[in-house]
């Protein structure tokens, strides 16, 4: 027998819902949402697409292409949210300020937001943006789970060492509330751990079923 994660079927049937430039354009603030954040080009869209087995989030080699809050429906109560990427996106300063203002409003006032998935490129972890997100999540009491993306770019040993190093740094600075794992979209590494986190936040953890192998 093996355990079937209940979130898997929902992710596989996920559909695009809407894009919001402002918080008042978001769906009704009810149910369960998990938001995906990451510095520009950290592999956020690729991770979302791999977890949903679809091409919901647009990927691009040009950082900063995600300029809106993009909502994806799992069922009538549950949604995933692709947040704007930050970093070295080549966009006008006023637009960056717009993103920041509405992102902060969303993160600080969204009752249905149950957790935040933060993507860090394993080759460049703990950027200034990552530190800001860690500070905000811990201060707000918001659960956070980190995906060290692009783990396939390093040998397994090097990736594991980076994981342990970042994990120790986070525990020292932010405590044990933040969890972290290795992840690779092309190699489909770390999917099961990520699904387990999503299922817990969306209150599906106790609804799994055993299925015959």
From TrEMBL:
This is Probable GTP-binding protein EngB. It comes from the Bacteria. Necessary for normal cell division and for the maintenance of normal septation. One of its GO terms (cellular component) is cytosol. Residues 30-204 form the EngB-type G domain. Belongs to the TRAFAC class TrmE-Era-EngA-EngB-Septin-like GTPase superfamily. EngB GTPase family. Keywords: Cell cycle, Cell division, GTP-binding, Magnesium, Metal-binding, Nucleotide-binding, Septation. PANTHER family: ENGB-TYPE G DOMAIN-CONTAINING PROTEIN, MSS1/TRME-RELATED GTP-BINDING PROTEIN. HAMAP family: GTPase_EngB. PROSITE patterns: G_ENGB. GO terms for molecular function: GTP binding; metal ion binding. GO terms for biological process: division septum assembly. Its cofactor is Mg(2+).
């Amino acid at each position: 027998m093996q355990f079937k994660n209940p979130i898997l079927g929902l992710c596989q049937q996920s559909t695009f819902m809407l894009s919001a430039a402002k918080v008042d354009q978001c769906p009704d603030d009810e149910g369960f949402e998990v938001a995906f954040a990451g510095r520009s080009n950290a592999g956020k869209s690729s991770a979302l697409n791999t977890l949903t087995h679809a091409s919901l989030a647009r990927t691009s080699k040009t950082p900063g292409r995600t300029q809106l809050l993009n909502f994806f429906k799992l069922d009538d109560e549950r949604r995933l949210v692709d947040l704007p990427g930050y970093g070295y996106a080549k966009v006008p300063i006023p637009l960056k300020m717009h993103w920041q203002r509405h992102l902060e409003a969303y993160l600080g006032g969204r009752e249905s937001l149950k957790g935040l998935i933060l993507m860090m490129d394993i080759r460049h972890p703990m950027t200034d943006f990552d530190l800001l997100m860690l500070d905000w999540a811990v201060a707000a009491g918001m659960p956070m789970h980190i995906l060290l993306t692009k783990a396939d770019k390093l040998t397994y040993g090097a990736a594991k060492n980076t994981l342990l190093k970042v994990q120790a740094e986070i525990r020292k600075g932010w405590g044990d509330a933040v969890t972290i794992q290795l992840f690779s979209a092309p190699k489909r590494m770390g999917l099961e751990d990520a699904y387990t986190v999503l299922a817990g936040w969306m209150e599906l953890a106790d609804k799994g079923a055993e299925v015959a192998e």
